[in-house]
From TrEMBL:
GO biological process, one term: one-carbon metabolic process
Domain (DHFR) ranges: 66-404
Family the UniProt entry places it in: Belongs to the dihydrofolate reductase family.
TM annotation in the entry: none
Keywords: NADP, One-carbon metabolism, Oxidoreductase
Bias (Acidic residues) ranges: 291-303
UniProt cross-references to InterPro entries, sorted A to Z: DHFR, DHFR-like_dom_sf, DHFR_CS, DHFR_dom
Entry keyword Electron transport: no
An example Gene Ontology CC term for this record: mitochondrion
Protein name: Dihydrofolate reductase
SUPFAM superfamilies in alphabetical order: Dihydrofolate reductase-like (SSF53597)
């Protein structure tokens, strides 16, 4: 009786683990390798050829850039930031100068050449993130804030609001040359489901090349997505500008410009502050959107962000030598009228411990600011230590830095929901 050749058999191992590829074992029986001894008529032992391939994938978590919340608040009433769309106190030149330097300063060691792209037209800028009402509260002659990427979060269609800004810029005598408009998708996540009628497009406005103080503008409907975009380690490559009558999906040319983001600053108003704090605390409940902002409608966070608060504390001027005497003699009446407040309570004194925030030592604050000076006491008679006196405005100010305790933990922050967006900025 003739022998029927046994076909090769294949055996697979169990399902692979999440961190390695599967291992394949192949068992092969050679039907032609028979024993010449006719009496035994048995096949030779099975030959096993085993090939094992194991690939270990080590997850690499890239931390997002920290978001610097820069805000001026009153001590009495606590955490007041606005009144009727304006600052509750007169303009403070020292604080305005500090705000401008802190948000526009680029350390000398930071340069576009250190990025992964070789585009010759890369700009390195800090980003200042604000709500639409905060943008509109800035005097027109100072819009956009120079030498910074101005980021506006609004529920309005970004291209429509961009054209509204373009109309204002063209009417301004301070702007020379033509601005360019660029459109692109607001969301980088492929799995996000696009709700019907949702505004998913962001718009860039770039100034004419002849402009001395570069100040491009980004309008976006989604704060989480725009923070993820700004936090990328690679520069943002802008698509070609939209021409009159040209399709918005026109291909990008080789002459595209790009923007490298150094630091991210949030400058208000209250609703934007609230959303920033909610994102940073890893809390999955998003604050309800209002007429000025829009949260991630899919209920997902685009990343985990550390929040670093740069707070300018403001109080009515008092000719007292110490904060202890000040606390004893201060009138129970508030120093300023406020109707808008910062959506979290920070201690009035850095020495007071908080369950959520810890104050920074001076060397850590210097590190955050790259060595930039803050308004300090002039050591004249009557000045309390650490406070800067503004005689013209009749106020005292000091800058305090705060960082969250256990910033990378899963702690939950409870935020009040009864605050209105602030139209005030500095």
């Amino acid at each position: 009786m003739s022998r029927v050749a046994t076909p090769p058999s294949t055996t697979l191992s169990g399902p692979p683990s999440p961190t390695e590829l599967h291992t394949t074992s192949v068992t092969f029986t050679d039907p032609f390798d028979s024993n010449d001894d006719a009496d035994t008529k048995k096949m030779s032992p099975t030959k096993r050829i085993i090939k094992t391939t194991t690939t270990t994938i080590t997850p690499i978590k890239v931390h997002q850039k920290p978001v610097y919340v820069i805000v001026a608040t009153s001590l009495n009433p606590p955490m007041g930031i606005g009144y009727k769309g304006e600052l509750p106190w007169p303009q403070i030149k020292a604080d305005m100068a500090f705000f401008r330097k802190a948000t526009s300063h680029i350390a000398p060691s930071i340069s576009p050449s250190s990025s992964t792209t070789s585009l010759p037209s890369t700009q390195t800028l800090n980003a200042v993130v604000m709500g639409r009402k905060t943008w509109e509260s800035i005097p027109p002659k100072f819009r956009p804030l120079s030498n910074r990427l101005n980021v506006i979060i609004t529920r309005a269609k970004s291209s429509d609001f961009a054209r509204h800004i373009l109309k204002e810029l063209r009417a301004s005598n301070t702007q020379n040359g033509e601005w360019s408009l660029h459109e692109f998708s607001s969301h980088t996540k492929q799995r996000l489901r696009k709700p019907s009628g949702a505004n998913r497009t962001s718009t860039f406005l770039t100034p004419p090349p002849s402009t001395q103080a570069q100040a491009p503008i980004l309008i976006s409907p989604s704060l989480p997505s725009v923070l993820t975009l700004l936090s990328k380690p690679t520069p943002i490559i802008l698509p070609d500008p939209i021409k009159a009558g040209a399709p918005t999906s026109a291909p990008t040319s080789n002459t595209s410009t790009s923007i490298s983001i150094n630091k991210i600053f949030c400058i208000g108003g209250a609703e934007i502050y609230k959303q920033i704090l909610a994102i940073s605390s890893n809390h999955h409940d998003r604050p309800a959107p209002d007429s000025d902002t829009d949260s991630n409608s899919d209920g997902e966070s685009d990343g985990e962000f550390d929040v670093r608060i740069l707070q300018t504390q403001v109080r009515a001027h008092a000719s007292l030598a110490s904060s202890t005497e000040l606390s004893k003699q201060r009138s129970p009446e508030p120093d300023f009228e406020c109707d808008t407040f910062f959506p979290d309570l920070l201690p009035a004194d850095p020495s007071i411990k908080s369950t959520k925030w810890k104050s920074l030592p001076q060397e850590r604050l210097d590190e955050w600011l790259d060595g930039l000076p803050v308004p300090q006491s002039q050591n004249s008679s009557g000045d309390a230590p650490g406070w800067y006196r503004d005689d013209k405005g009749g106020v005292d100010i000091r800058v305090v830095g705060w960082e969250r305790r256990g910033a990378r933990s899963d702690s939950v922050i409870s935020l009040p929901l009864n605050f209105k967006p602030s139209a005030s900025t500095r």
